[in-house]
Design brief:
Layout: E1 11-14, E2 17-23, E3 42-46, E4 64-70, E5 80-85, E6 88-89, E7 91-96, E8 99-105, E9 111-114, E10 125-132, H1 148-153, E11 168-169, E12 173-178, E13 182-193, E14 196-206, E15 210-215, E16 218-223, E17 228-235, E18 241-242, E19 245-246, E20 249-255, E21 263-269, E22 274-277, E23 280-283, E24 286-287, E25 290-294, H2 308-321, E26 325-327, H3 335-344, E27 347-351, H4 363-384, E28 390-397, H5 404-409, H6 418-434, E29 439-444, E30 458-462, H7 474-492, E31 496-500, H8 519-534, E32 539-545, E33 550-551, E34 562-563, H9 576-585
């Protein structure tokens, strides 16, 4: 999962460009050898979602083919050459020069194959990627299910989640080379000892028995045993990483003799710790209150495709508002976004695409969903484990018991099926085994089983009192919110973050007194939640839904196929709420310690 990089030992070729593209609704392409060429191709940008490029495939989620041709530099011969796909939503197969390199299931996370033996060195190489995004009940996230909120909201396409099910190659595709003896993985963990920082580095490598790490002017040796080695460096008077002071130390790992290394890999390290004490989250031993947003990788035309200008703009807007954090709702964001968070000092709750999970279909179906959740969780941790910005793993967003509608209505229901709690316990355990240095959470829906939150380090909840319930009644919504927060903390005794709360708002719509859908109503809605949190010492954060308006499937609850809960419009113009938050959150200590 190491991100490709260019240095004196490694090479990298970014294949982002305009590729040939052809849909395959009959799913005949593989049998007919479309991986060798596309007879009726049209141009397609990579990265991008195909749905917003051509009007005839806006709702197409079936099989499609991407194809490009490229030379591989002759100087790469003798090295291993890898083909890495940053994200293919939802499932993909990859061919190189007509030979199958491999496949991957699950969008939003990278995968790669060793294609050295498949390459031509004296002619262009044909690279073909087959992608499909069928909405199916046993996928994560799911589609075309019979129950839950998906059926209630009657969305088209029939996703179980409230954002558009974009398809395609959403992140960059790279060819890169590594030496035969090379660094395979690096894991960095940090501790604080008085004024010093302790940086521990575990390295996996092939084909060599020694190496070294270099950090803050110091060097420590690596001695490999069965391909694994560890070393630690003490950084005196360390500059700790955090919002407002995101100091990063360059770390270099070398393989072999420093005078003539066989391989090297560099990354930036932030020295910080994250922990929970009572109702408080501690960053570097000090209380931190997470102020920020739920977000989406969503923009006109590019869809969910990685969009660097929008990424930079969004971070600038978050910092202008006074935010210090966000959640990757509801899937892993690009690696470029994680590097921006490291650089800008933004805390991240990192979430897998386990959104609106349901437990229908029988034991075999549930086991398949658990398998996919565990795969995605392991891949996400492997990808993002070295980012200081990532402080918490989220194993699910709004999972739904069979009686979710009754629970949301406030009806009395029996205790939740313990097998569902065991499902999430496996994911909690996986996170803690693979990464014991970060917090773990589950984001609960309104009325959701409190049992599912009992193993979390932080209780994250989505609540819409005053919108979906107590509709149009701001005072009643605030009272209901306060009552639930107090009861939830009395039961769990752990920090609480409201990870979603918001009101759909049409930019330019005004009313006095505030009516729903007006900018005034959104401001007063948010004010009530901020005030309720400020009165409660166990509240550890607030993430407003959403940073910006975003595209959804078509539905009776989504005017113009958009969720309008953004404090910015989709093209990033501020609503009144953005100015309200800027005034409130930009003042140190206005709601909670700024950290």
């Amino acid at each position: 999962m190491l991100y490709p990089q260019q240095n004196d030992k490694r090479n990298m070729l970014n294949l982002s460009d305009i590729w040939d593209f052809q849909i395959d609704p009959g799913e005949v392409g593989e049998a007919e050898g479309w991986f060798n060429g596309l007879a009726n191709a049209r141009p397609m940008a990579v990265p991008a979602s195909w749905n917003d490029i051509y009007d005839d495939i806006r709702d197409y989620l079936g099989v499609a083919w991407y194809l490009t041709k490229t030379f591989v530099p002759a100087g790469w011969q003798g090295d291993r050459v890898m083909l890495r796909v940053g994200s293919a939503n939802y499932a993909a197969k990859v061919w190189v020069n007509g030979s199958l390199a491999g496949g991957h299931e699950g969008g939003h996370l990278p995968f790669e194959f060793d294609v050295t033996a498949l390459l031509r060195w004296d002619a262009p190489n044909t690279i073909a990627v087959q992608v499909e995004n069928h909405l199916m009940p046993n996928r994560v996230p799911a589609g075309n299910t019979r129950g839950g909120l998906g059926a209630f909201m009657r969305m088209f396409p029939a996703a179980t989640f409230d954002f558009f099910p974009y398809a395609g190659l959403h992140r960059a595709v790279h060819l890169y080379s590594v030496p035969t003896s090379h660094i395979q993985d690096v894991t960095v963990t940090t501790e604080i000892d008085g004024a010093d920082g302790l940086v521990s580095v575990a390295v996996e490598a092939s084909g060599e028995s020694s190496g070294s790490i270099h950090l803050a002017g110091q060097t420590a040796s690596l001695i490999f045993d069965n391909g694994a080695a560890q070393a630690q460096i003490r950084v005196a008077d360390a500059k700790l990483w955090g919002p407002g002071h995101p100091h990063l130390y360059p770390l270099e790992v070398t393989l072999g003799d420093d005078a003539a290394p066989l391989d090297r890999y560099s990354l930036e390290v932030g020295i910080r710790t994250i922990a929970v004490e009572g109702g408080t989250i501690l960053l570097n031993g000090q209380p931190i209150f997470l102020k920020g947003f739920g977000r989406h990788e969503d923009f006109a035309i590019s869809g969910r495709g990685d969009n660097t200008p929008v990424t930079v703009k969004d971070y600038a807007l978050m910092k202008w508002v006074g935010a210090n954090s966000y959640r990757t709702a509801h899937y892993p964001y690009s690696e470029e976004q994680m590097r921006m968070a490291d650089r800008e000092g933004i805390l991240v709750i990192d979430e897998i695409p386990n959104v609106s999970l349901q437990f229908g279909g029988g034991a075999e179906a549930i086991a398949e969903r658990l398998r996919m959740c565990k795969q995605q969780m392991a891949e996400l941790i492997a990808r993002d484990k070295n980012h200081p910005s990532v402080v918490m793993w989220s194993i699910a967003n709004e999972p739904m018991p069979a009686d979710v509608m009754q629970r949301m209505s406030g009806a009395k229901v029996p205790p939740v099926d313990p097998s569902t709690t065991a499902f999430f316990q496996e994911l909690y355990d996986l996170c803690r085994a693979q990464d014991p240095t970060r917090l773990v959470t589950l984001v609960g829906i309104g009325g959701g089983p409190v049992e599912w939150l009992e193993s979390a380090d932080v209780a994250c909840i989505n609540r819409y009192y005053g919108w979906y319930s107590q509709t149009g009644q701001l005072d009643e919504g605030r009272a209901a919110l306060k009552n639930e927060l107090d009861a939830l903390y009395a039961h769990l005794g752990k920090p609480i973050i409201i990870t979603e709360f918001g009101a759909d708002t049409l930019a330019g719509n005004h009313s006095h007194p505030p009516d729903m859908w007006s900018e005034e109503y959104q401001v007063e809605f948010l004010r009530g939640y901020l005030d309720a949190a400020a009165e409660r010492p166990f509240m550890a954060g607030l993430h407003i839904w959403n940073l910006a308006d975003f595209k959804t499937a078509q539905g009776v609850m989504r005017a113009a196929s958009m969720n309008h809960k953004g404090v910015f419009t989709r093209d990033r113009q501020p609503k009144m709420a953005a100015h309200f938050l800027h005034e409130r959150w930009s003042q140190p200590g206005s709601d909670k310690p700024a950290g």
